Amino acid sequence: CRCVPSRALTALPPQAAMSSFAGLSRRGRLALSALGLLAAGGGGLALALRSGLSAGELEMHPPSFPWSHGGALAALDHGRYRAGAAGRGPRRGGAGAVTPFSSSSSSSSLRRGFQVYKQVCSACHSMEYLAFRNLIGVTHTEAEAKALAEEVEVMDGPDENGEMFMRPGKISDYFPKPYPNSEAARAANNGALPPDLSYIVNARHGGEDYVFSLLTGYCDPPAGVTVREGLHYNPYFPGQAIGMAPPIYNEILEFDDGKRGPGAGAAPSRGGAGSQGAQPFPPSPGTPATMSQIAKDVCTFLRWAAEPEHDHRKRMGLKVLMLSGLLISLIYYMKRHKWSVLKSRKIVYRPPK
Q1: 140 labelled as ligand-binding?
Q2: Which residues of the chain carry a pLDDT beneath 50?
Q3: 3-class SS at 186?
Q4: Residue 28 has what pLDDT?
Q5: Does residue 125 have a known ligand-binding role?
Q6: Is 244 one of the annotated binding-site residues?
Q7: Measured between alpha carbons, how far is residue 14 from residues 18, 23, 26, 29, 57 in Å?
Q8: Domain limits of the chain?
Q9: CA distance 211 to 204
């Protein structure tokens, strides 16, 4: 290693080390400072005017709601319909068992959400990327999914004569579309095209918070705001004027998750009037179909439709974290063991005599 003597380095002139700003006169420095302030003020004013005139900032941002599936270890509300195929019992732990990846209630928010979509949303919105078989083990059993599919008439063919024919639906069929094409959908909705709901939660900023706020945010326009005929005021929609009428309200439907009493089908007691036959308890009413409950259930269903791997992803993430905790300590020990020789050695330079 050859060292260069310090006297061999040429020193820079003091004028080159001085900044150009310090080399200016006092009047020049003042003019340059004023020009910088003027440019900064003009840029700030332009930015303020642009944000003030932007139509996108006129919409309200949805608040963040405490969703039951929003936690790191929280799963979607499958409830007692997580069983799987028809005839199979509920998951281990019972219908009401509370585990990190199961619902805390026996009723299924996903099943209620599908009911809302089927009875309310499917009249205008499609879900062309969802098939009836996807419901098996999530919201319905296999027999229930087959019964739902058979309610739909699907065009198939051609047959042996080369003609198309109608047949009952199968579980491999996708959800039917309310309109044959986009032009028919626009014609039936005053020129507005209802979006497909398969991935609507991922396609909108805010996710289910935005969808929930949009469904429950219809109100009268404030003073000074006029909405043309055929549109409705909604502060959460961009532009505040939406072509979709309020789709949900209190008691628009009746959830079919009512459960029978604990004595249903039980043998009568000996003697007395009850000995004439079994007196089953009447079915209890289902979940109250309030506007917020309907919106919450359909948003949960749309979250599952957009991310069917939601629960599996979180479960795999937990496994990865647990394995990483074990592997990191082992890798750290191996690193210290392998590098201890290199990091503890000393290099001494002995110049030749």
Answers
A1: no
A2: 1, 3-12, 16-18, 53-56, 82-107, 260-281
A3: helix
A4: 82
A5: yes
A6: yes
A7: 7, 12, 20, 20, 54
A8: 58-131+178-257+283-316
A9: 8
Helix axes 208-216, 291-306, angle to 10 degrees: 150
Q: Which among 9, 69, 44 has a CA at the least distance from the CA of 304?
A: 69
Fold topology of 58-131+178-257+283-316: Cytochrome Bc1 Complex; Chain D, domain 2 (1.10.760)
**Helix, strand, or coil (residue 264):** coil
Q: Is 232 annotated as a binding residue?
A: no
Residues 6+ apart with CB under 8 A from 171: 131, 132, 133, 136, 142, 145, 146, 149
Whether the Cβ atoms of residue 225 and residue 236 lie closer than 8 Å to each other: no
pLDDT score at 9:
44
Q: Are 287 and 112 in contact (CB under 8 A)?
A: yes
Q: pLDDT tens, 5-58?
A: 444 444 445 554 445 666 778 888 888 889 999 999 998 888 877 655 444 456
Supply the pLDDT for residue 94.
Answer: 38
* DSSP labels, 266-281: PPPPSSSGGGGS--PP
